[in-house]
Specification:
The protein has helices at residues 2-15, 36-49, 62-70, 83-91, 122-127, 142-153, 157-160, 170-179, 189-194, 224-235, 237-245; strands at residues 25-32, 53-60, 77-79, 101-106, 108-112, 133-136, 164-167, 184-188, 200-203, 211-217. It has 256 residues and is of the alpha/beta class. The radius of gyration is 19 Å and the shape is globular.
């Protein structure tokens, strides 16, 4: 029932964008929650060159958004924080394969409201404290899966498991830290850059693979030209510069 109501809500979200002229095109973008702030700026600057394309965003964990698309929820463009979720949609031919492209990279940091001393060692810090650590849910949130893998690589997962607080998406991990519900949190470096409350960050060791954000146009989108136009803007030098301003890194070998 919850899934059904979620799909109905998405449909209403699209139908609710009725305050536009007859010539406006409406575009629904399913975007990872860690892209929330940068997409607001992206929308503002895109609207300056394409004023007749109205953007609506549906934010959530990449796995949740992928599941919605699999169930037939309306969407025109998928911006994922997870290559795995994009590959699952590709295997089901639910996205335009030719449009798949990585557009940003990220990395993990340990975040706190307080600054860390320059000599702070990650392992010593997390092992010699009783403080709670917020992370994404490992089974359903890409940030959580990346965090678990990094902690396992450092042989820290079992030692810290009783002190971990799980969040439904990357943005909720940030909220837990900013609100004080967790003294520490493993978040994306891009979220640390834009947070006004987080003052301490420490690189998380054990990250063996890059965190790559891929995007693609939805195969059955009825707004292919508009979706392609916004997707090309995100991957353009202008879009890449906006992503860099909000703390994201360019794909290795490419200049923003």
């Amino acid at each position: 029932m919850k899934k059904t109501m979620g799909l109905i809500s998405l449909a209403l979200l699209m139908n609710g964008c009725s305050n536009t002229s007859a010539n406006d095109e409406k575009l629904l973008v399913s975007a990872a929650s860690s892209l929330t702030d940068v997409m607001k700026e992206m929308e503002l600057q895109f609207h300056e060159i394409e004023p007749n394309i109205e953007l609506t965003f549906n934010y959530g964990s990449s796995s949740k958004l992928r599941s919605q698309i699999e169930q037939g929820a309306p969407s025109d463009l998928f911006l994922s924080a997870s290559e795995k979720d994009m590959e699952l949609l590709e295997s089901q031919q639910l996205i335009d394969i030719d449009s798949i492209k990585p557009f940003a990279e990220n990395q993990l940091v340990l975040a706190s409201l307080e600054e860390f001393p320059e000599t702070t060692d990650f392992q010593e810090l997390v092992l010699n404290t009783e403080e709670k650590i917020a992370i994404g849910e490992p089974d359903s949130v890409p940030l959580g899966a990346y965090s678990k893998k990094a902690l396992e690589n450092e042989n820290l997962w079992n030692s810290l498991s009783s002190r971990l607080i799980y969040a439904k998406d990357a943005r909720q991990v940030v909220t837990y830290v900013e609100s004080g519900n967790a003294e520490l949190g493993i978040i994306y470096s891009s979220d640390a850059v834009i947070s006004r409350e987080i003052n301490g960050t420490l690189e998380v060791p054990g990250q063996t693979d890059p965190i790559i954000y891929p995007g693609a146009v939805i195969a059955d989108s009825e707004n292919q030209p508009a979706a392609t136009a916004f997707w090309e803007f995100v991957t353009s030098s202008k879009g890449q510069a906006i992503l860099k301003e909000y703390g994201f890194m360019p794909i290795a070998g490419e200049t923003p």
